[in-house]
Specification:
Length: 429
């Protein structure tokens, strides 16, 4: 290899790995010009060499054991694209850094769990640990936070950061189908992660929001304190009701500064149909960052797929080739604050759905418990009856979620309550 090139060891040849090879080959000239030197694949490693692939591997050096890439003298950067929060990804990155190799990864789970430790290691070695592809696929949101908006004090970041959930919710609405049917379709199309709870259980969004929170607030990554609610319990009836009230349901990730500490949440929310978030369809991601000087800025684009994710990996590589070494979380990792976990509740309006017995005094009982918990009703509707029972919809004024939960627990135990009450936050974005 010529001396001046940046030599990479590519581990993982799935969708993203193949996208990276494709981009390096097709855009070789512009990448070389912009990087100031050639970015060359020195070695490739994947589980199965003989798997049928659409490109010719014979031009590349093949390495069977990923850990040997971490100590290969010819390699400057290890590109880890196998994923997973555990082994071998963790050891590959750890050993690569200890062996003085820069690291580029798309591994959101690993960064969410071990990001602080790995960032410390990278900094001690004066190396880059870049993971642009870990959040929102082709949207360069980490670079925005680390570089473009770095003069701002960020108060809030929120977004739709899981394309699979957005696809499922969009299809449920468009096709008038329930969750289980659309979920199966999404699985057949290959949109759902191997462990589906990562997507529909909100964990993938939580990995991503914890990364965004750390970059936004200068705090150590704190995945364990993300409050997570997924989309499995969202029913078609709630999607229809939301629509009739001028809303759509989206799985939102939110990170916000509170009076003391930070709040990190992932949960389905009603958002106004006409808002940027309300207009979001399919697998597209959208992220909003609120800074004290830039104010609110929005970033939209494909959240997954070979091309968009490869685009982010290549940008990380070009930064390294240029010598643009930015700390993994935008500042010295030793100086990242330990975030204070807060139970402080942000006040929000909620959509509530009950199935109640249609008898005198039922609503009085319901309203009594809500009132006792300081929950004020903004709008209310009783829908077409189901047998003896009446479906009741309520939109509250901004209220405290802890009080709401205790009110709903009390209501769910009453005779009048015929199914588990449903509550969904309303974000009037
Ligand atoms: N499962 C993820 C998504 C892939 O649907 O957004 C990209 O991180």
């Amino acid at each position: 290899m010529e001396k001046n090139s940046l030599n990479i060891g590519l581990i993982g040849l799935g969708t993203v790995g193949l996208g990276v090879v494709d981009c390096l080959v097709k855009n070789r000239e512009i990448i070389t010009l912009r990087a100031g030197r050639e970015i060359k694949i020195s070695a490739i490693c994947a589980k199965r060499k003989n798997k049928k692939r659409d490109f010719d591997l014979s031009n590349y050096r093949w390495v069977q054991d990923p850990l040997t890439i971490a100590s290969d003298d010819d390699i400057d950067v290890v590109v880890e694209l196998i994923g997973g929060e555990n082994e071998p990804a963790k050891s590959i990155i750890e050993r690569s850094l200890l062996n003085k190799k820069h690291v580029v990864t798309a591994n959101k789970a690993l960064i969410a769990h071990n990001g602080h430790y790995l960032a410390l290691l990278a900094e001690e070695q004066k190396l880059s640990l870049n993971f642009e592809a870990a959040v929102a696929g082709g949207i360069p949101i980490l670079k925005i936070l680390k570089e473009s908006l770095c003069g701002n004090k960020v108060s809030r970041v929120y977004g739709v950061i899981n394309g699979t959930c957005n696809y499922i919710l969009t299809q449920m609405e468009n096709e008038e189908e329930d969750f289980s049917k659309v979920f199966k379709q999404a699985q057949n199309l290959g949109y759902v992660e191997k462990d589906p709870s990562l997507d529909v259980g909100g964990i993938d969004s939580a990995h991503k929001i914890s990364i965004l929170a750390s970059l936004a607030f200068g705090t150590r990554i704190d995945f364990d304190n993300v409050v997570i609610k997924g989309i499995e319990s969202i029913s078609l009836v709630d999607i229809r009701n939301a629509k009739s009230m001028g809303y759509r349901i989206k799985l939102m990730g939110l990170a916000q500064r509170a009076k003391k500490g930070i709040i990190q949440e992932v949960e389905p929310c009603l958002v106004p149909k006409e808002s940027l978030f309300g207009k979001l369809n399919g697998g597209t991601n959208l992220v909003m960052v609120e800074g004290d000087f830039a104010d609110k800025t929005h970033y939209i684009g494909p959240g997954a797929g070979a091309g968009p994710t490869a685009s982010s990996v290549i940008s990380d590589l070009i930064d390294i080739a240029r010598g643009n070494i930015v700390p993994a979380f935008g500042q010295n990792a030793h100086l990242l604050e330990i975030p204070q976990h807060t139970s402080e509740d942000l006040l929000s309006s909620f959509y509530l759905r009950f199935l109640l017995t249609d008898k005198p005094g039922t609503l009085a009982q319901l309203a009594g418990i809500l009132g006792k918990n300081k929950i004020s009703i903004n709008r209310m509707r009783q829908l077409q009856h189901q047998d003896e029972n009446a479906p009741v919809l309520i939109v509250t004024h901004p209220i405290n979620k802890t009080l709401l939960k205790s009110a709903l627990e009390e209501i769910s135990k009453l005779e009048i309550c015929k199914s588990e009450p449903v509550y969904i936050k309303i974000e009037d974005l």
